[in-house]
């Protein structure tokens, strides 16, 4: 029904953004709301979920992120919220690599994914990701997947620092708390921001 919206972000919350388009504010649940910036015209790819009790719009920064979301919600045991959590803490390429390489140990590190769900993801999606496979080059089976390396959530940390800078914190202040944030390895941008604010308050 909908493919994408073009509008300006007027509100950012830990779970969703509000995109204003033609004097209508669309509530879009996204993997990482802090990946968006306020008041800048952007294109957001959307997915409409219709249930008996609700109609929910999900927003994504790219087509392949949305495509992977649609694949994930087809897996038994993974609903829209679970799929968002996976995309919030992992790059699409890393998730695809883990599925194709049958790396259950990697997949169970995502929020809400146990061994049974990881196995189901592999059974349902391996070899069935279609055009998504064209986006990435898979490593050999012996190669290490990069997401859970020195800091598996470096992307979320970076976005939290950018958001804090937008709130008025100086580079000097952020540089003081960044090492402790890197050690924390928190799972979401929101968690990094909350921890950073605690640390910044201690500097006052």
From TrEMBL:
SMART domains: HhH1
SUPFAM superfamilies per UniProt: DNA helicase RuvA subunit, C-terminal domain, Nucleic acid-binding proteins, RuvA domain 2-like
Domain Helix-hairpin-helix DNA-binding motif class positions: 70-89, 105-124
Subcellular location: Cytoplasm
Keywords associated with the record: ATP-binding, Cytoplasm, DNA damage, DNA recombination, DNA repair, DNA-binding, Helicase, Hydrolase, Nucleotide-binding
Pfam families: HHH_5, RuvA_C, RuvA_N
GO biological process: DNA recombination; DNA repair
Region ranges (Domain II): 62-139
Single Gene Ontology MF annotation: four-way junction helicase activity
Region entry Domain III, spans: 152-204
One CC-aspect GO term: Holliday junction resolvase complex
Main location: cytoplasm
Family per similarity comment: Belongs to the RuvA family.
Described purpose of this protein according to its UniProt entry: The RuvA-RuvB-RuvC complex processes Holliday junction (HJ) DNA during genetic recombination and DNA repair, while the RuvA-RuvB complex plays an important role in the rescue of blocked DNA replication forks via replication fork reversal (RFR). RuvA specifically binds to HJ cruciform DNA, conferring on it an open structure. The RuvB hexamer acts as an ATP-dependent pump, pulling dsDNA into and through the RuvAB complex. HJ branch migration allows RuvC to scan DNA until it finds its consensus sequence, where it cleaves and resolves the cruciform DNA.
Description of how the protein assembles with itself and partners: Homotetramer. Forms an RuvA(8)-RuvB(12)-Holliday junction (HJ) complex. HJ DNA is sandwiched between 2 RuvA tetramers; dsDNA enters through RuvA and exits via RuvB. An RuvB hexamer assembles on each DNA strand where it exits the tetramer. Each RuvB hexamer is contacted by two RuvA subunits (via domain III) on 2 adjacent RuvB subunits; this complex drives branch migration. In the full resolvosome a probable DNA-RuvA(4)-RuvB(12)-RuvC(2) complex forms which resolves the HJ.
Domain observations: Has three domains with a flexible linker between the domains II and III and assumes an 'L' shape. Domain III is highly mobile and contacts RuvB.
Protein known as: Holliday junction branch migration complex subunit RuvA
